[in-house]
Amino acid sequence: MTDSPTGLDRAMTEPSLPEGVAYGPRRTDALGTACRPFRYFSADGLVLAGRDHGPGDPALTPLLCLPGLTRNGRDFEPVAARFAATRRVVSLDLRGRGASEASPDGSGYDPMTEAADVIAGLDRLGIDRAAFLGTSRGGIVTMVVSVLRPERVAAAILNDIGASIEIDGLIRIRNYLAGAGSNGPADWPAAVQATKAAVGLAFPDLDAAAWERFARRIWRDRGGRPVIDYDPAVARSLDALTPDMPPIDLGGPFAGLAGKPVMTIRGELSNILSAATVTDMAARHPGMVTVTVPRQGHAPLLEDAPTLDAIAAFLDGLPD
């Protein structure tokens, strides 16, 4: 992908060696939090990107943030603003999203490949284990990493994702992604309106400033015009969905978190993660912390004080 709204994700050199990571100069994100953008190579040679809000207290477990299906690390700017002063916070753009390079043939947009990319990122950054915060697709990738490399996942925070996914919610996502088009809105006010039209029912209480922030995290700026910030091929996995399908069972990957501290955040208005699924998850994983974000749907924005306070309490309780 190309330049972000702030341009900070492109202000760096390319990785010089497949084993290395290339850091750009320290910058501030849209909320004023200091970070260093970085890049590294995937196993198949794509240049992947992220932000490192470090160094934090080395005695505390780093927090690794993984975004949703078509989203990017900008979604975690409120999280970094809250925690980066004391704890290392790293966010990744999954392949084909944000500042990460797209697959030339549209392949590799699956949780297994993305989990391998994440593990490679941890290796490059010298992070042996982290607390994972995964929104939607990022939560699925978190569970897969815990199956593949359980020693890398110290704890998991699943944001509006869990052991089962409701089909009607996925179809709604497919429909509004199809309506986004490849060129994007004509200008930023139109981008804000397009964002509200797509997900306004899931976030009925956002004010004008919040919608502006939301839009700026979804779209990227190209010469003053908003454009989509992901490879359209990312969404092809949703093409085959039909309303008569049963919920998607992720019980196997969720079982990979057994024995680990887990927190599940659900939007009260979510059509992806049902309240019944959260109840079932809590029965399968005794001790799981559950949080419901009032008046938000898929996926909670992780910027309100009560939700951030709950995340802080969970992280503070980890055996660092």
From TrEMBL:
Residues 63-305 form the AB hydrolase-1 domain. Residues 1-25 are annotated as: Disordered. InterPro entries: AB_hydrolase_1, AB_hydrolase_fold, Carboxylesterase_BioH. Pfam families: Abhydrolase_6 (PF12697). PANTHER family: HYDROLASE ALPHA/BETA FOLD FAMILY, PEROXISOMAL MEMBRANE PROTEIN LPX1. This is AB hydrolase-1 domain-containing protein. It comes from Prosthecodimorpha hirschii. The lineage of its organism: Bacteria, Pseudomonadati, Pseudomonadota, Alphaproteobacteria, Hyphomicrobiales.
